[in-house]
Design a protein that fits this description.
Layout: H1 2-9, E1 13-17, H2 22-34, E2 39-42, H3 49-58, E3 67-70, E4 73-76, H4 78-86, H5 90-97
Parallel strand pairs: 1-2
Antiparallel strand pairs: 1-3, 3-4
Main location: cytoplasm
Family: Belongs to the glutaredoxin family. CC-type subfamily.
GO cellular component, one term: cytoplasm
Length: 102
Amino acid sequence: MERVFQLAAERPVVVFSKSTCCMCHTIKTLFFDFGVNPTVYELDQVPGGREIEQALARHGVAGDFPVVFVGGNLVGGANEIMTLHLNGSLSAMLKRAGALWL
């Protein structure tokens, strides 16, 4: 899990995704629509993706993609991101992390 947190801390928004996951696509599109350029790791395409997926599962995030980190902190998956978006707190979180300038 250390590698996951290290990757997550390198950029303001990090998304662990799968290229065939429709909810992953939706969340990435939401970030792009905000003007945020998340770092995306497509676990079914990157070297070591399976190991990252196993580390996430050991941390209690099993099979639920995307997995989103903002400001180095685990936020959760699509449900959590959409809840934050709908209640208006996602943009403030992105600003605090330095991912959104407006």
